[in-house]
Amino acid sequence: MTEVPMITATTDAPAWLRRSDQAVSWARAMLQRDRAVVIDCETTDLPGAVCEVAVVDTCGRILLNSLVNPRQSISVGATKVHNITDPMVAGAPAFPEVFADVLRVTAGRRVLAYNAVFDRECLLADAQRHGGDPEHLDDPDTWGCVMRARSAWVGTPDHFYPLGAGHRAVGDAIAALIVLQRIAEDSGLDR
């Protein structure tokens, strides 16, 4: 299998990803069976602790969908965005328990997120806060950014488009997967 460079959400699009056909090729490669998963996190604030995380595979199967007890209050502003409240997470597992599941379901796969920088930073910050080893998630080359691919696909590689989903982790992960599928099909959405 040919190694496909990852699309990360950096300041500038990589030189190889300046055209829509490159985004289409990347998306098709990421959709190969068992190659990648799509993750999304919701947080207590910006920045903040993880209060919900979901992972779906590229067939749309939900591999993980869990509230997380962040052991800190969720800001009013964050609750207005994702509708997750302190009482909802009070009985949820703590981050280390959920993170073990995140590591398990992402192991050996590319980890895609709509805004990969955000989700990666949230997970790494919480892993550090709890003294956990982020393992493969610490490697930026493990991550891919669907938002960056979408921007290249529509012909504006340095502009970022909002996902437009409901800001709950599983819904956002599925919405990001749908964007990835549309890019791979090179049809609909944003054109």
CA-based gyration radius: 16 Å
The CATH topology label is Nucleotidyltransferase, domain 5
The CATH homologous superfamily corresponds to Ribonuclease H-like superfamily/Ribonuclease H
* Beta-strand content: 15-25%
> Separation of termini?
31 Å
Q: Helical content, roughly? A: 25-40%
Gross morphology is: globular
For the record, the CATH architecture stands as: 2-Layer Sandwich
Count of strand segments: 5
User: What is the number of independent domains?
Assistant: 1
The main pleated sheet reads as: 5 strands, mixed
Text of the CATH class = Alpha Beta
**pLDDT averaged over residues:** 90
Description:
Helix 1 (20-30) runs antiparallel to helix 6 (146-153), helix 1 packs across helix 7 (169-185) and helix 6 (146-153) packs parallel to helix 7. The longest helix has 17 residues, at 169-185. This protein is α/β, with parallel strands linked by helices and 191 residues long. Strand 4, helix 5 (116-129) and strand 5 form a beta-alpha-beta unit. The radius of gyration is 16 Å and the shape is globular. The chain has helices spanning 20-30, 76-82, 86-89, 95-106, 116-129, 146-153, 169-185, and strands spanning 36-43, 50-57, 62-67, 110-113, 143-145. Helices cover 38% and strands 15% of the residues. Strands 3-2-1-4-5 form a 5-stranded mixed sheet, sandwiched between helices. The protein has 7 helices and 5 strands. It has a single domain (20-184), classed as Nucleotidyltransferase, domain 5.
